[in-house]
């Protein structure tokens, strides 16, 4: 059953959004970076900070589209999140990796894929939610740059880091950024997106699981499948190509989903379930369960209308994450140390197919 007509669901989503943008929007971007776990190091703190900004903006834009009366309350916060992301401080992690500023080198050939695609995706969400034209020129420049660099690559994939390794979950944001631009402005990049998706289906399905590979190394070998990466891949593919996404959702359910009663979760590993370990992308893995994988899978479940699975994943989030509620605020207790996880969960939980007939 479509959950967003429920007053209870709406009130909870608003309380979570209130807490989230209060924490993520800061006067000095360094404050946000300092909220990321210190143990992961300054560069990954920067990368997690951009995820916190982008996922919060996505959640707010989704809520505006679900409940248009929230537009006046939330749109200004989306602007602040985009402007906060478009600062040298937030993209410092990317500058350190590539030894040049991403926006000062749009005419160049270095990838900068993760930063450029996420910023472009944020602007696309803003425009789709009814935002004004203040970012139109920047949006076009970012998408043109992504498109040109993808076409210059032999398989239309771009590396996340200078070491040349391709992370397909990161590439989802490139595809989504270009697709959103096409939804707004017409089929500018349709050919690139179609060719890229065809390449993914043809060359990069991991044979043991049927899931899209997580990483592609320089020798073209495929990295291991993981819950965190597969959760994001499945959500991205659902938004880009419904049939492809639904196929991947079935593989995700078969190979990486654990269901126990009214709970469900995504495993981080195919063949092991450590009592506790920490993964830079999955977060704290407890008994093999991937926090990031479970959160990202919410997006695919919501988009394709797998409402029973969505509720079971949310039940697990409530159980594992804990709940804190006071006044007009609500968040998972785990967000006190994993703020980005709260942002991802709210964005994925509201990842509605706005073209679906029931809307």
Report the structural category: mainly alpha
Uncertain residue ranges: none
Helix and strand sequence: HHHHHHHEHHEHHEEEEHHEEH
Largest sheet: 2 strands, antiparallel
Number of strand segments: 8
Mean pLDDT: 94
Distance between the termini: 12 Å
Helical percentage: 55-70%
Q: What is the number of helical segments per DSSP (H or I, 4+ residues)?
A: 14
Radius of gyration: 19 Å
Task: Record the strand order, biggest sheet.
Answer: 1-2
Strand content: 5-15%
General form: globular
Q: What would you say this structure looks like, in words?
A:
The chain contains 14 helices and eight strands. With 359 residues, the chain is mostly helical. It is globular and about 50 Å long.
What keyword list fits this structure?
two-stranded antiparallel sheet; 359 residues; 14 helices; globular
Task: Describe, in short, the structure shown.
With 359 residues, this protein is mainly alpha-helical. 57% of the residues lie in helices and 8% in strands. Helix 1 packs antiparallel against helix 14, helix 6 crosses helix 7 and helix 12 packs parallel to helix 14.
